[in-house]
Amino acid sequence: MSNFKQKQSEDFWAEVMHRSKIQLIGMNIGTFHQWRATVGDREIHRLLSLMELLLSPDNHKFETVFFIKWINCRINGPLLFSSFRTSGRTLIRQGMKGEIYCIPVLYVIIRHLTDDAKSPVSSNQEKNWRIDFSQIGEHKTTYQKPGQHRDFVT
């Protein structure tokens, strides 16, 4: 990878992490866990696997727009985006414009919250929950093995 491309990638991920932290600060974690309970961990894992295909600054706008529409229609997107409070509307609006940070930010947040919490928390627990920002960015991605192809299945 050229130095320019590597620097561009590092800058992209630094911005993704910055935006993810900002989103997490104002997030309603209880609503997120309602969404998680409604959708189920299997479907969320599938969502994250599909999102991994779009974690590049080189994505086309129509892919991001399609994916935001898919989230809204297929996996109770309104409840997911309502957990971001007022910034959820901004996230949807930016995603519908094809903004390159939208999907990676969603991926980091969903991955962090599902990896961090093994089971949903109650409203009382949510009040005392602190997010450990030092763990953001240490999310695991699933990489395909050489010669292995990923199928897009809906």
Q: What proportion strand? A: under 5%
Q: Termini, distance in Å?
A: 33 Å
Helical percent range?
A: 55-70%
- Stretches where pLDDT falls below 50 for ≥5 residues? 119-131, 138-154
Counted beta strands: 0
Q: How many structural domains does the protein architecture include?
A: 1
Element string (H = helix, E = strand): HHHHHHHH
Which class of secondary structure composition applies to the elements?
mainly alpha
Overall pLDDT confidence: 79
Question: What would you call the shape?
Answer: globular
Tell me the radius of gyration: 15 Å
Largest sheet: none
Total number of helices: 8
Write structural notes for this entry.
This protein is an all-alpha fold and 154 residues long. It has helices at 3-25, 29-39, 41-51, 61-74, 77-82, 86-96, 102-116, 123-127. It has one domain (13-135). Helix content is 62%, strand content 0%. α1 (3-25) packs across α7 (102-116). The radius of gyration is 15 Å and the shape is globular. It starts with a helix and ends in a 27-residue tail after the last helix.
